[in-house]
Amino acid sequence: MLAKANRITRGADYKATVRRGTRITAANTVTYIRTDPDSAVVRFGFIVGKTVGTAVRRNRVRRRLKAASYELLPQLQPGADVVVRALPASANAEWATLHEEISRAVSKGNLRR
């Protein structure tokens, strides 16, 4: 589970990351990455829309994305904001697949320590 300090909670922060961040597209997710030099923590946010499926499926996808991002926290540079948008195909994706997509997106965004 991500600590409160590692979660994006304000809508303005989501909007800024999606609009001004780097977009990395994969089969099941779209990842937006923005670096804030004034921040000292890595923050993640998740967008799982109704196109993914029922509430049960959406929550399962969100939990899988959170678990995958939790494992990446120690490897990331401080000040990174990462927003992961789940695509409809993510409802049937395995956890390992989602983990690999987020890991690859973070690598492309040059956010590893």
From TrEMBL:
This is Ribonuclease P protein component. InterPro entries: Ribosomal_Su5_D2-typ_SF, Ribsml_uS5_D2-typ_fold_subgr, RNase_P, RNase_P_CS. It holds the Pfam family Ribonuclease_P. GO terms for molecular function: 3'-tRNA processing endoribonuclease activity; ribonuclease P activity; tRNA binding. NCBIfam families: rnpA. One of its GO terms (cellular component) is ribonuclease P complex. It comes from Leifsonia tongyongensis. HAMAP family: RNase_P. Keywords: Endonuclease, Hydrolase, Nuclease, RNA-binding, tRNA processing. Belongs to the RnpA family. It comes from the Bacteria. It catalyses: Endonucleolytic cleavage of RNA, removing 5'-extranucleotides from tRNA precursor. PROSITE patterns: RIBONUCLEASE_P. Its EC number is 3.1.26.5. Gene3D superfamilies: 3.30.230.10. Coiled coil: none annotated. GO terms for biological process: tRNA 5'-leader removal. RNaseP catalyzes the removal of the 5'-leader sequence from pre-tRNA to produce the mature 5'-terminus. It can also cleave other RNA substrates such as 4.5S RNA. The protein component plays an auxiliary but essential role in vivo by binding to the 5'-leader sequence and broadening the substrate specificity of the ribozyme.
